[in-house]
Amino acid sequence: MDFLSWAWNKRNMAKKLTTATLLVATAEEASNLRYACGFTAPDAVVFLKHGSARHLVVPPLELGRAQQLGGQTRIWTPADLDVSDHERRTLSGWTLGLLRKLKLDAVQVSRTFPLHMARALESEGIRVDVCDTSLFPKRVIKSEQEIDNIREAQRAAVAAMRKAQQCIQQANVDRQGKLIWKNKTLTSERVRFEIDVTLLHRNCIAQETIVAGGRQGADPHERGSGPLYAGQPIVLDIFPQHRGHGYWGDITRTVINGTPHPEVLRMYHAVKKAQREALAMVRPGARADRIHQHVDQVLKEAGFETSVSNGVAQGFFHSTGHGVGLDIHEAPRISSSRQTLKKGHVITIEPGLYYPSLGGIRIEDTVAVTADGFEMLAGMKKAFQLA
Q1: Where among 135, 167, 183 does a domain terminate?
Q2: Which domain holds residue 119?
Q3: Domain's final residue, options 89, 108, 135
Q4: Helix or strand or coil: residue 82?
């Protein structure tokens, strides 16, 4: 390496070492804030990490709770920052005040960092570098404590899934084919209510739970509404967040009360096989794209093609899985990406098939990658026909 190259590398390495990480904790960055220092708040705050030092600027209302974090994070309020009255009323002003206090002139921010704030900082001579990857790349590898937290949320998801299946299994069928439970028509909304109550008893909440019957299940993110019918597949996707530690669980089962259409039954067995074989591939060193390609191959060999018909996708058209942690969707993605699985990753495996004329089938479990394979964080039987 010549002298000029050495000098250039040394200068850029010094920039990396001295560039601070800035986080304005809006809703989009709440999980990063929680990971970085353990704090949560309904209002926006400012967090800065510079080397091993951590700084948190909070409004006076949040000062007491913030001080409970302990000495590892220095807590500031706007009054501590020697800012003008105008700056004291804006997050940009808080940030500038903190940077002046710490004598910093460069920060790195996430891709979701507010543009108006970036411009305000740059107008004051602060260099703003946008990080192409995660601000906290270590989030992808979960500690034992984090895995225990996800396991707790996953067990709550399993309990809620059992309750949902119990409602469907116990239902009778009226003359129109509607499911009747406790003398009332069983609807997606009623099953979701039972799921929510079960989760609350385990200190968890879920906002987008899917209970989608029949053709509604052909849209993977359709939440479902209205009466549920016998003989139609019902997709149940439950992904709760624990209200204490903030980690998520995620499980999906597809069930039916009554006799399924033969093609729907074939779909179910194909998805179940694809999930079983995908799980068998999960281990450190396994490539995400190869797991995804194998799932695609299994479903194609079973005769289920993926296409677009009248502008609607059908078949298998989403990723095989995703990471789970303080966000419900995290890295790594089990898709066409060439990411390699590592011990400590927590991922879902959730193949599915979707056809508007038949409905949807999806089966999902959340697992932790171990030294020699995977651990199912909360197991549950896969049963299709409940009654």
Answers
A1: 135
A2: 3-135
A3: 135
A4: coil
Q: Position of tokens 């599915």? A: 352
Helix, strand and coil in the chain, % to nearest 5: 40, 25, 35
| DSSP H helical ranges for the chain | 3-18, 30-37, 63-67, 85-88, 91-102, 115-123, 144-170, 188-200, 262-280, 288-301
| 243 shares its domain with 192 | yes
DSSP state of 343: T
Q: What is the pLDDT of residue 21?
A: 82
Is the residue at 381 inside a domain?
no
Map residue 323 onto helix, strand or coil. strand
* Distance between CA atoms of residues 214 and 224, nearest Å: 9
Q: Which residues pair with 24 in a beta bridge?
A: 46
CATH of the domain at 116: 3.40.350.10
Q: How many domains does the chain have?
A: 2
pTM (2 d.p.): 0.89
Query: For the chain (length 387 residues), average pLDDT per consecutive 10?
Result: 48 60 68 92 90 94 91 92 90 95 95 91 96 91 98 98 98 97 98 98 96 97 97 98 97 98 98 98 98 98 94 96 97 95 98 97 98 97 93
In a domain, 178, yes or no: yes
Phi-psi region of 327 (alpha: psi -120 to 50; beta: other; left: phi over 0): beta
Domain holding 229: CATH number? 3.90.230.10
What's the rounded Cα separation, in Å, for the pair 362 and 244?
29
